[in-house]
Amino acid sequence: MESNVLNKDKLIKYWIDGSDDDFETMTAMFDSKRYSWSLFIGHLMIEKLLKAYYVKVKSDYPPFIHNLLRLSEKADLELTDDQKEQLATITAFNINARYDNYKMSFKKQCTPEFTSEWINKLKELRPWIKTLVLQ
């Protein structure tokens, strides 16, 4: 029984460490004016924290999905309407930065102002989710 707890802890640490690394990368991408990529990495950062939370509450491997709202629902995470809207928008960053047919319009959308606004929202979500994982 104890080894399951250890594996669970290791898996949570794996997701948190990956998210922390993505936070650094997101910031570096933003600083280098690679705005669409910074938001793409921001999506990964939040996804990994939600997967850590999933492992914590479900004691199971997280599902292979990238939709942050769906991942939150599967983890039974209670969200405000504003948080739901934010996660839906952040999920779109994953699709828009990844697929060529969306990339160009997404790059145009990612002005310094737009990206800065969303980086700040990502920076607000990060400690909230991380606290839920670590408590």
Return the structural class.
mainly alpha
Annotated CATH topology: Four Helix Bundle (Hemerythrin (Met), subunit A)
Largest sheet: none
Percent of residues in helical segments?
Answer: over 70%
What is the chain-wise order of helices and strands?
HHHHHH
Strand content: under 5%
Low-confidence stretches: none
Task: Using the 3D structure, state the CATH architecture.
Answer: Up-down Bundle
| Count of discrete domains | 1
Overall pLDDT level: 93
From the spread of the alpha carbons, the general shape counts as globular
Q: Quote the distance from N terminus to C terminus.
A: 21 Å
- Helices, by number, come to 6
The CATH homologous superfamily: Nucleotidyltransferases  domain 2
* Computed CA radius of gyration, to the nearest angstrom: 15 Å
The CATH class, by name, is Mainly Alpha
Number of strands: 0
Secondary structure topology:
Elements: H1 2-31, H2 35-58, H3 68-74, H4 81-98, H5 100-109, H6 112-134
Helix pairs in contact: 1-2, 1-6, 2-3, 2-4, 2-6, 4-5
Task: Explain what this protein looks like in three dimensions.
The protein is built from six helices and no strands. It has 135 residues and is mainly alpha-helical. Helix 1 (2-31) runs antiparallel to helix 6, helix 2 crosses helix 4 and helix 2 runs parallel beside helix 6.
